């Protein structure tokens, strides 16, 4: 288990390092010049442009700028916003808690609805399974921006049960305001996890040893717990890790639709303003979230399945 943890940690650091280089290079190699953000529609003199480029270290070679940014990230210094001059860490940190809460609420909905619907569909073949399969097949095809539009129109505008935008003060206010965007964020993922759960449980139910245990008269509850659900957990855990990572990326759309002041909305605004330091920081956070979610998924699978711990020792 220790070797597996070290392998995942090494993979995490390597991925973050390579991603940082790619993120930095892709932004600064894009068409246009970053200092144009500060000048806007004005036509600066050559001296003014040179002074701003020197202040932003744009007159240095790209590898030097990349190295300075990487070492700054390691020190916790993400630079300053090119638009507001505020520290990038402060700008990102202001909305990070809201985004984490939104993803957490969405993941609770995904687990409850996805596992529940998938389990019912697997254990109740026939009409129940067909209805559940139809519902999940429909949900996975609904993009987050479509779900956001429909939910706002129905539950915020017509029924008035939830606010259509922003958040409210206090934890209870935050949860009430985030419940609608969380459902929009979780809808497609619920269907995906339900399909994975149904298929994994159906596969285990068809195993010979499960059928033998049922024929011998073992209680169905015990067989489901010890032989079906436990052996079906690995693919479900993998799917849950992928879903959690995907939720962070989908916040860009949902937070913009509901005007939620999180890092997803901040990213859209920063891209529109060409605020490169903020975009870099958020992109790195999204990559980190994706890698961490997958690493945690692997570790949880190793705890559930001892065979994976053996693989970690022999690799």
From TrEMBL:
Compartments (UniProt record): Cell membrane
Membrane-spanning intervals of the chain: 12-30, 100-123, 135-157, 177-197, 236-258, 278-300
Pfam family, one: BPD_transp_1
Listed InterPro entries: BPD_transp_1_N, MetI-like, MetI-like_sf
Residues spanning the signal sequence: none
Bilayer topology term: Multi-pass membrane protein
Gene3D superfamilies, A to Z: MetI-like
Domain named ABC transmembrane type-1: residues: 96-297
Main location: membrane
Coiled coil (UniProt feature): none
Keyword Transmembrane helix carried by entry: yes
Keywords: Cell membrane, Membrane, Transmembrane, Transmembrane helix, Transport
Cited PANTHER family: DIPEPTIDE TRANSPORT SYSTEM PERMEASE PROTEIN DPPB-RELATED
Family indicated by similarity: Belongs to the binding-protein-dependent transport system permease family.
Protein name: ABC transporter permease
Annotated organism of origin: Streptacidiphilus alkalitolerans
Lineage: Bacteria, Bacillati, Actinomycetota, Actinomycetes, Kitasatosporales
């Amino acid at each position: 288990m220790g070797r597996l943890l070290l392998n995942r940690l090494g993979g995490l650091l390597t991925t973050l390092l390579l991603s940082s280089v790619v993120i930095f290079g892709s932004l600064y190699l894009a068409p246009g010049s970053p200092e144009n953000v500060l000048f806007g529609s004005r036509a600066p003199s050559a001296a003014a442009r040179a002074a701003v480029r020197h202040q932003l270290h744009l007159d240095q070679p790209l590898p030097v700028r990349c190295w300075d940014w990487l070492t700054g990230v390691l020190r916790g210094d993400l630079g300053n916003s090119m638009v507001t001059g505020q520290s990038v860490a402060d700008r990102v940190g202001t909305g990070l808690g809201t985004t984490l809460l939104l993803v957490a609420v969405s993941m609770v909905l995904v687990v409850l609805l996805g596992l529940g619907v998938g389990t019912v569909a697997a254990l109740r073949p026939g009409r129940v399974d067909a209805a559940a399969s139809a519902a999940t097949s429909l949900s996975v095809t609904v993009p987050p921006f479509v779900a956001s539009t429909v939910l706002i129109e129905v539950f915020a505008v017509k029924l008035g049960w939830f606010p259509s935008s922003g958040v409210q003060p206090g934890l209870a206010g935050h949860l009430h305001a985030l419940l609608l965007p969380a459902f929009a964020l979780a809808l497609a993922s619920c269907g995906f996890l339900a399909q994975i759960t149904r298929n994994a449980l159906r596969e285990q139910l068809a195993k010979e040893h499960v059928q033998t245990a049922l024929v011998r008269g073992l209680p169905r509850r015990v067989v489901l717990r010890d032989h079906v659900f436990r052996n079906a957990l690995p693919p479900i855990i993998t799917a849950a890790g992928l879903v959690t990572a995907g939720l962070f990326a989908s916040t860009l759309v949902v937070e913009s639709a509901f005007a939620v002041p999180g890092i997803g909305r901040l990213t859209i605004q920063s891209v529109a303003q060409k605020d490169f330091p903020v975009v870099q920081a958020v992109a790195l956070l999204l990559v980190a979230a994706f890698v961490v979610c997958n690493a945690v998924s692997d570790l949880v699978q190793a705890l559930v399945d001892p065979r994976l711990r053996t693989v970690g020792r022999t690799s």
